[in-house]
Design a protein that fits this description.
Length: about 525
Amino acid sequence: MGLMISSFVLVLAAIISIFLGQLFTKISVSYISMIIGGIIAFMPFINGQIDNFNSEIFIGLVVAPLLFFEGQATRLNLVEKEVKHIIQTAVILVVLCLVIAGFGVWKIAGISLPLAFILAAISTPTDATAMESVTNGLKIPKDEGIFLKMESLFNDASGIILLNMTILWYVNGYINYGQTVVDFLISAVGGIVFGSLAAWMVVLFRQILLRSSFNSLNAQSLLYLITPFVLYYLAEELHVSGIIAVVCAGLVHNAEAQRSKLLNAPQVHMGYDLVSMVTETLNSIIFIILGFMFVKIISQEKFSNNSFNWLLIGVTIYLISVFTRYVYGRLRLKFNNRSAWIFSLGGVHGAVTLALAYTLAEFHVNRADFNLVLMSESVLIILSLVVPTITFKFILDKDVDDEDIAQEMGEIRINMVRKAIDAVNKMYLPDNVKDSVIFDLMAQKQKTRTKDFVKQWIRVVRHPEFTGAEKELEMRAFMNALAQEREYLDMISQSEVKYQDYVFELYKEVLLAETLVIGPTVSE
């Protein structure tokens, strides 16, 4: 019951933050979510409904599907081309950051060496999802973007293996290097093999269903949505990397989508919409939890005289990480100065770092050290978000301004609807049909008032339904009008290259509208 209430509170908070993100477009929705999470922490009734944070549930139910969908957005042949760079960033760079940060924190903060390396290990995974929150309204160069994306997809497993090694060091007092290397290879290679094979079997099963009389759009969509959850937990039961397994599964599903999008177009389209909704919701929930936990720990815990040691440690780890990544980018990845800073600051931390910090609760780590790790890693996450958000405004080129987009697309939309209405007015139609069609077309301008809708709603309730002939005339009027809109948008997409992507989105909206008006055969 507690988990259900907690989930409801988090989803409701995510809905609010997404709405506010549409209102305050200059602020990333991630920051809004963090603020809402912090506010929840100060509300006794609500924060009491949120269960104790469980890292295993968090990774399995939130992080795993996000990585699966992120993997699906990446072409498999791109990964094949970037294998060398993936090893450089997801393995070599991770180990390098671990060693430098571990010794640096140990020397500066005066804590035990095993604890210092635990802090360093938790800080190694980066987050592609969090990266999007710091580039709001900015364009990241293609090459640097690919490096950061490939790194974040595959370095989580490295961080998890290294964390397990450092925890054993903390508990037992020694490191088993040979076992750590073996565990890493088994976990990583096992995750790749299991994730790829299992996903391929799921894909084949779904493709067989698509070509059979047993296919069901809703059942297929549900099967698709539960795939990352099932694969993650099965991989973990087999003691291989569940994170790598879901990433590889996503890559396999990308190839499926490329070759079967027209086999069952409604199903594929529903899949895109579901992924968009789930991804946006889970992203928001991640930052709500981060804001909630950070405020809750600060407000509840009683720190010692060294209470601000966590702040020093968080800042130290972040600075070491940034400069290590910069030097590595310059010397090993052969970046120029600007690209190296983009790569360095683009190593943003988020969900996985937070979840790994909470895994310490499952081991024999004393309470004071556990709190120190939580607070330090929270500082690291916040710095990794705030610093690039500010710095990238001076380094990266601006994307098309939101106000310019709104103004330009508003004009295009008005002209589009005007052409559609002109086409309808030229048709011979009964007045009631013509009025109905024109009202719906006017709604495309997004300028109709709620008062107008209420009048039309009352009209529908009071007046009889259109006859069969009137329904057919209505449908054909819509088809003619929407065809004019598509023709206009096709022309605009060729002349307005700057806004081409946004014009295509509007074109897709018109196509979707057309599917709504082309109903079943009209009976007389």
